[in-house]
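Final report, results section. Input specification for complex C-07:
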Amino acid sequence: MNCGQFQKRLHEYVEGTLSTGARAEAERHLANCDACRQVVRKEQKFAQLLAGSLRRGTETLKLSPEIRQNILMAALRKPAPPTLGETIIGLWRRFAWQAAGAVCVLVVAGLLISHFSRPRISEMGTVRSNDHSRHAALAQRPVVSIQIAYRVPALKFRREGNLVVDTLAYETVVASGTLCPGGQVREQ
Amino acid sequence: MNEDQLVTRLKGKHPEAVQELVSAYGDRLLRSAFLLCGNEAEAQDIVQDTFLQAMRSVHRFRGQSTIYTWLHAILLNLTRHYHRKHQRMVYDDTAAEREIVLTDENPAGLDAGAASSALREALGQLSDAHREVIILRYYEDMKLHEIASHLGISKGTVKSRLHHAIGQMQKFLPGEMNLFGAAGTNLIEKR
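Structure output:
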């Protein structure tokens, strides 16, 4: 081990975390190297001085009673009920995977149903032609055509000598018209 | 009450567990926060926020570290947030008045107050990342692998930051306090 290798491991040597073999190697180097022994001593002195200075410089610091009180009050306080947003976020975090699974199942089911309920190709032509003729008929037809036939009784009288003879006959009356949009009836 | 029992009771929202937690670690965390941010009032607030956040997230604590290390990790994040807002660390006046009197350990028979002031001033001049490793190494007395785990960086990066931080501090220290001296600094540079 040379000086550079030793000084790379200086902190581990000082804190005592070198492996047994590495420590023995370091000790052998130190036994023959005055410069590295001096570095070790100075590092130890620096650590001692700095640690002592920092400890004594802060040892009078105490957590203030107000801060202690604040912390204890916070511990005693019941947590505030979650807001609507927090509730929604909480539910989402809790049920997001289940919801995603349910949506996937529904989508697949919907696709399957739409696939199997669709008319076959051979039927599609018929359906289309029927639809076409029906639309054409509807376009030509008047809105509503009405024709009413009814019989009206007619009583007729005639004289035969000293007798009056009555005859009951029925006359047929035919009425036709068109029921227009809006409920108006146009007579023809 | 041992750590496991304390954590169990904290998870059960027992107020006396919180009280015990604050009693056990409040002052220690405050001192670390003060060294990290340099301002006592801010350090008090950071420690308060640390405990509040710890109470909220205690259910995530798995016991893979000590309670103090877990609390300190929260504190470190909050301190970084504080630094992002304030950019630079400036020690407050009360800190200067609290300077300590070094005695026997003073290696060069330096003026004790001056030595401490110089060290703290040098610490305040470091970048946040460099100051963190110095405090964790020399104040919290963590080992390199513990610092690496605590900061989420590699051990090599910890060593590199320590190396640069010590070099920087030496530059800010007066000559008689520069333990490595001119030759020593050169040795550090070569590490």
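The first helix of chain B runs from residue 3 to 11. The CA atoms of residues 167 and 185 of chain B lie 7 Å apart. This concludes the modelling results for the funded period.
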